[in-house]
Amino acid sequence: MNSNEIDIHKELKKYFGFSQFKGLQEQVIKSILSQKNTFVIMPTGGGKSLCYQLPALIQEGTAIVVSPLIALMKNQVDAIRSLSSENGIAHVLNSSLTKTEITQVKADISSGLTKLLYVAPESLTKEEYVTFLRSVPISFVAIDEAHCISEWGHDFRPEYRNLKHIIKQLGDVPIIGLTATATPKVQEDILKNLDMSDATTFKASFNRPNLYYEVRTKTKNIESDIIRFIKQNKGKSGIIYCLSRKKVEAIAEVLQVNGISAVPYHAGLDAKTRAKHQDMFLMEDVEVVVATIAFGMGIDKPDVRFVIHHDIPKSLESYYQETGRAGRDGGEGHCLAYYSYKDVEKLEKFMSGKPVAEQEIGFALLQEVVAYAETSMSRRKFILHYFGEEFDSATGEGADMDDNVRNPKVKVEAQKEVVQL
Ligand code: ADP
Ligand code: MG
C-alpha cells in the first residue's frame, strides 16, 4: 500500500479519536508505512504504542508486537478491541491459550482480520508458532520496550536476544524498535542486536522542564528533614522511595507518628494491601506513599508534586524513570535525593554477590549516580548529557530548575587556592 495515499490524520481520528499527533508520532508512522526499519526513543507517556498501532491497523497483514509483560499486552489488546467491533482485530499469542483459542487466533490471522498480534519473546521461540507466522502476511514486527535487549538497560531479558534470529525466519519484514531508555549505550546495543544500523531513528527530548532537581547530603537528621519538607508541602501528593522494605515500613511509621498521612508499598505486602494502598494514594486519601521501586510501574497520577529518594537509586536511568512520575500534568515536581557515600558502599556490597559481568555493569551505572550527586554543574544538563542530549544550561527550558544552578557551590579547587595563599 502506498503510504502517500493514506490520510493518516483521518485514520488517527477514526480509530483513536485524537485530532493531532503527539510529538514525533507522525514522522514515525510515515517511516513505518514506507517499510523502513525504524527506531523510536521517547520518554514514558510519549505515546509510543500509537506509533505502531495506527500503521498496523491501516496496513495489510498482521503486525507482530513483542512485549515483555503479559499484563501490558492484555491492556493493549483490550484497548484496541474497544476501538473496533471485531474482537479478532487484536490477539495475544502465549502459552496460556487453550488449543481451541489457538485455532481461533490462527483463523483470524489467516483471514486477514487480525491487525495486531501481541507475543512474549519466549512464545516466538516456539517452532510451531514460527512455522505458522511464516505462512501468513506480516506487515512488520514491533519490539516494544526494546531496551530489554541490552544488559545496560534496566530490565535485561535474555529472550530478547534471540529476536533477530527469529524475525529473519519470517522473511524480509521491517522492524520497529521502541524504548524509553535514552542512554547511547543501550541504543547501540539495540541497533546492533537487531542488526538494524540502517534504521531511521526518532528521538524525542527527555527534558522535563517542570521538574526541580535537588540533592541533599544524607545525615542522621534525614527523617526530620523529610518531615519538614512534607509539612512545607502540605496537601500535596508525593512518593518517597527507599531501598529496602524494612526502611519503607520504618519511614511510613515515622511519618504517621508525626501526623502525615502516609502508607507503605512494597512487594512484601500482600496483593490486597498493595492494591488498597495504591488506591488510597490515587484517590488522595493519603498524601504520601513510601515505597520500594516496586511502586510506580503504570501509575499515572498526574499531580504527584514531589519524589524523594531516601536512598540513592542504582542508576541514573532508574532515577530519571522514578522522578519522572512527578509533575506529569506539567505542574511543579520537586525531585529530592539524599546522598551518602555509605549508601553507595551498601549497594556495591549488595552487588558483589552477582556474576562478575553484571557487577561491572552495576558499578559503572552506580558511578554515574555518584557523579550526579557530587556534581556542581546543572543537574538537568548532567542527566540529559547522560542520555546523549545537549542541553544549554543558560537558555534551555527549565535551566534554573535545580539546586546547583540556583545556589552555585563554591568550587573545591577555589577553596584550595585560598588556603595556599
Ligand atoms: P508510552 O508507551 O510512550 O509510554 P503510551 O503509548 O502508553 O506511551 O501513551 C501514553 C498516553 O498518551 C496514552 O494515554 C495515549 O492514549 C496518549 N496518546 C497517545 N497519542 C496521543 C495523541 N496523538 N493525542 C492524545 N493523546 C495521545
Ligand atoms: Mg509503552
TrEMBL record:
Q: Which residues cross the membrane?
A: none
GO MF annotation terms: DNA helicase activity; hydrolase activity
Keyword Cytoplasm in the entry? The reply is no
- Assigned EC number: 5.6.2.4
**Domain spans labelled Helicase ATP-binding:** 29-200
Q: What's the top EC group for this one?
A: isomerase
Q: Which domain of life is it from?
A: Bacteria
List keywords of the entry alphabetically. ATP-binding, DNA-binding, Helicase, Hydrolase, Isomerase, Metal-binding, Nucleotide-binding
Is Metal-binding included in the keywords of this UniProt record? yes
Indicate the segments forming the Helicase C-terminal domain, all copies: 221-378
List cofactor names only. Answer: Mg(2+); Zn(2+)
Could you tell me what reaction this enzyme catalyses? Couples ATP hydrolysis with the unwinding of duplex DNA by translocating in the 3'-5' direction
What family classification does the UniProt entry report for this protein?
A: Belongs to the helicase family. RecQ subfamily.
Q: What is this protein called?
A: ATP-dependent DNA helicase RecQ
What is the source species?
Flavobacterium erciyesense
Q: Report the portion of the entire protein shown.
A: 1 to 421 of 731
